[in-house]
Task: structure prediction
Amino acid sequence: MRARTGSSMARALTGVCAAAVLTIATGTGISAAQPGSIQERLRVLLDDTVRGSDVPGAQLVFTERGGEFRITGGVGDLGTGAGFPDDAQVRIASNTKVFVAAVVLQLAGEGRIALDEPLERYMPGEVRGPGGDGAVITVRNLLQHTSGIPDYLSELNLESVDALRRARPPGELIGLGLARPAEFEPGSRAQYSNTNYLLAGELVHRVTGVPVGVEVTRRILLPQGLNDTYWPLAPVEQVLRGPHARAYHQFGDARVDVTDIDPGWGLPDGAMVSTGADLNRFFMALLSGQVLGPAQLAEMQRTVPSGDLRRQEEFGLGLFGWVTSCGLQAWGHGGTMHGTFVYGGATADRSITVSMNQIPDILAARTGGVDLDEVVDTALCSV
Result:
């Protein structure tokens, strides 16, 4: 359930086998790919990515005002050789955090949450331990990863199928993070921590009296018509509802199908399911002011340095921001979990999402010569 990985890992993502296939969505107004067109340029880049990598396959979805197209490469199912379905659903991992942050900011716009108030005001007694003090840590600290609370994931061993499929409640995971010494004083710097968003989910529940997944659904998914996006019902819902590729993870020498899992051990930091098309539409709606009021969107886009030399992005409130090669301010997040790697970027006018059905090998990526940042940059800077 990690964040957008940045250029150092993206360069590892070189691809596997079958050539990329371009599908133009009907009725969108985007013409068929021509030599030199953005569709053709992205098809070549994705094909190179899949051909040189250890991942079985990938799907790229590009959306802009008035059009959309999809490109698939490699295979979506190693057993049958089938490709990615056109509207493939995928576990979007840490992209979930953007939805959660947007709900918190909506509540801030309604006067029900103040970003710079301590958590103790809303969650009395819940944030206590060596890892952090709710009397000092603010709502903004959670959303911007400046809380200093350690990441609970460092306390888990998920390198076996049994461990991956054993759900843990959010309270237990929060406890793992708070039991470790804090990484730094709140607000002094930034460091990505999934524990922050488990707490953000609990914050929404405390303030509204409704689980965060229900709030995301009624406040964002339904109003925006994101019909292929949902919050799974843990622990019973282990199979994706719609068409999807199979998801794989390398456990030692064995590549294992991990498609059907209980996402309940993550939830607010990375459990949602979506499609590339829906995810693109969400980011464009968010950045064009359809999800948040102007003041709240401006808060979301106030950034601080990530403090991570591997990243080109800075941290906003649930969003990461960076500048493209053509000078555009771009936004996104990204996500990684067992069997899933989701990468992309967006402006108010266009968005791209690349989904892979296995986490790419980092070492292979560094030598593969294809950079997913280049794929995203090419899409956002196309004319």
